[in-house]
Description:
The chain is about 70% helix and about 0% strand. The protein contains 21 helices and no strands. By secondary structure, it is mainly α. Helix 2 (about 30-40) runs parallel beside helix 15 (about 285-300). The chain starts with a helix and ends with a helix. The chain has one domain.
Amino acid sequence: MTMEMILALGILVLMIGLIMSDKMAFGAPPLLACLLLVLSGLSTVPQAFAGFVNPSVIMIAGFMVVMAALQKTSLIDNVKTAMVNLVNKGSYKSYALLLVIVMIGASLAGTGSTGYYVLILSLVSTIPYTKKLPTSKLMMPLGFATNHPLIPINVALLFGVTATVLQTAGFNQDVSMVKFALVNLAMSLAFLVWCLIAWRFLPDHPIADASEEALAVREEEAPKLPAWKEYCTVGAFAVSVIGMMMMNQLGNIAFVVPGLAGAFVLMINVLDFKEVRDHMGAPVIIMMAGVIGVADALAGTGFTAMVGDAVAGFLGSSVSPFIFIVVFALLTSTCATFTGSNMGSVYIFAPIAIAACTSLGLNPTAAAIAVVVSGWNGGYMPIDGMPAMILGMGRYKLPEFWLFSVPMYLIRILALCLAAIAIFPM
């Protein structure tokens, strides 16, 4: 290893350590890493901060604004009302319909939406116990369902991350957003099938001392949007999604369509400028932009290619492409599960997986997709975020949690990798 490789690796390790330790605000460690790249002479200022003008980052920043506006419509309220009505009816059929409703809601809320899973978990925790449809049989399936859109139209974040890691690695072939959505759909359907089977194995016990008053979900003081503003907001969301799905046809225009839609919802006062500014500069956007400079530096020093060659040599030229991407998906999702750092885990393993594919003469698209999506699909340990909330709010014992979460995890990863390699042949 050269001194440049050691310096770039040291900055990467420092950045990841700060992300995982929560010593700095989320999104701040990559900015520090960019500054250190310039200080060490590994990158110029434009190179270190290139992520802030990356087309995919700009696209996602605009879409974050549109999503913030969509959260102000009555769509989420309608999902809540339907959930309560189904629970009151009880039965296995109601359980299945609840799963579908929550997964459709996830299509609007987006992958890993903290607000959405907190909303669903909080709602389930307030439902009184009934033998017909015990809430302990709902907490795990519905909680994890918030991460699985049944209509995968809202995959901009993961698609943008995938496009970014591929572009950073020097792979500039266009990736179809429609095909990317189909990979996500395959994984969501596999999750749904497991939940329908797991009904028989889920525990039956009360999870909360809920009363009739607790069923009433508190509404925010903010006034409801007029009907015409709701229609305009939903229309802006639809235009953004269609624009991103037509990236291959529209070219550069597709990257700014969400931003234009965000400007539209600002003009009609669905959001004020502070809300637009906060969502365009959200920590996840800063994280995405910042790590691009670090990844570029690693690639520029030859470190990424070196590791890729080493992994390729270890696996051998005769390795099955399916086994190859499964290994990297398991590594990424496990790292994310134990550290709570989805984005950090993806940016560790994605460049290595892409470099290894290149060394083996394989198309890296399927591997990149599997690695990126797997970063948000661990959760078999109740260590951080949603899994921890599910364990605590559901009053599960750890074996009960594992009985559902471990098979779910393996089924999702296998479905993800199979779909990725089938839709994007290596």
